[in-house]
Amino acid sequence: MSLLALLIAIAWAAPFDRPDFPEPRVLVAGALPEGVVARLGPDTFRFAGWTNVLHNGGPAARYSSDGKRIAITTTAGAYVWDATTGKRLLWVATDSWTVSGILGFGGTNDVIVDCRRLHDDKGGGVFRINIASGKVDGQVAAQRATSLPGGVAQWYGRLFAHPGQRHGGREYRYRDRHGQGTVAAEDARHELDAGFS
Amino acid sequence: MPGMSWMRVSPDGTRLLVWSSCAKWEVDVLDTATGKLVERFVHPDSDSDPAWTTGGVAMSSKAARLVAAHEWDRGFTVFESGTEIPTHRVVGPWYSNIYLTQGSKRAVVIRGRGDQSIEVWDLPAKKRLSSVPALVGRTMTLAPDDTTICTTDARGFPGTLQFFDVGTGKRLPQSPEWFTQAAVVWYLPDGTLASADEKFEKPVKWDVTTGAMAALPAGSKPPEPAKPAATFHPPTGTGPVVVAPNGERAIGYRTDPDELDSSPGDSYLGLFDDRGTVVRKLNWYGNLFGTKSAFAPDSKTFAIARGDGEITLYDSEKGLPIRTLRHGGGVTSLAYSPDGRFLASACGDGPILVRAVGGR
Question: For chain B, how many helices (H) and strands (E)?
Fold first, then answer.
């Protein structure tokens, strides 16, 4: 039995290096993907994949509050464009092992994405990405619990998360750089411990 | 299942709305400052009929007004703070993508699937103000100025964002045109990159250095693909295959007719030897259909691209992956340059990408 488990584990791991914890794979603005020497033809408002996905239960498309940016989630990841010029500002790519989706826009120049391991609830996180640099400057990572729940997180100065229906609980917690708290607790059966790092 | 569980924060950040039941349409409204349950909205029919919110929800500040589109034939519902059940219900086929505008006094909602229309409703008056036909897609968002709908899957424009005027339903000028010259890509014998639409009505060639495009004679097409040898006998259920230049390997999609109800292993991209024996099963998570593949000129490597833009290079001997690449569009065609140094990928709409992949 253990040999079978080992073989399954080897088959699962190979042939790619499966990340222990997903990190957003960010392409900034007009950056060419690795190894690309030329891009030919129009590129405005273009995306890959299919958009009939509701990543984490949230809308697949949304404007920023000032109307200057548009973000969508597709099966190929999360995209952000300049709403006027159509220039791509960010592409947080989904690949064989991770899926990335847009959760919302943050303050002045950032987006919030959810990035998690494909077909696996045990790895995931919510990241705040600076649009100009493409750098992750904030992260909510599951620390004690096995994962962030399947609920939607939105960014309004706080980040909300909830345990998800499969845990049968109704506890809603938030944590940000300035503090943390439990919004409500009713019949909570699942402990979530997430925070920015 | 989409729409079965969600949370939303009101625009002013004071309310957290949570729907976490798949049995009934009940939405808890919580005060984000105190954590107290403020009230609850309940769809009265959800005990007997599903009222999933796959069409979306929208709310005003403090969740004083909530609108929820239920798709199917459930219409959309309007809830007001202080009243548990809807204050107004509109029954109609397939309402989706609902938004609040004009100080939450109006709702913009998309009606229908095949023949869509943009409807604007006066909520206090419970009256439809306008209904204009529009070829919007299913995934969309309303601009903050309430005048523009941005949609991702408008008919005739796959892979691009499109913009529509809420008042007229007309497609707006900032919407990109569908670039048709990049459905199929191939290299000419002299190493020039060429591409064309699916019907080869508009073949072009490219200056890779400058990005300039020039027309090719109508009807220009890539060379006929190599055919497998007479000794190539793949298993039953194997579709058309792409054959390596040296004839020793082939790639094809296979469904085992005896294993249709089992998984995994019943369908896969197979790497075959020259006799049709499966050397390696390339099982991916979905997206097997629509994959494109090409062998390098020296037959030592091959590339497989799938619809979400991921391209994987493999060694032909054992079928093991070497590198994973990405294209900004769903890949519709792949081609190696004659010297094997470059791999071009096209997505049918939008840019062609040319990559350095080695070779001599």
Answer: 0, 30
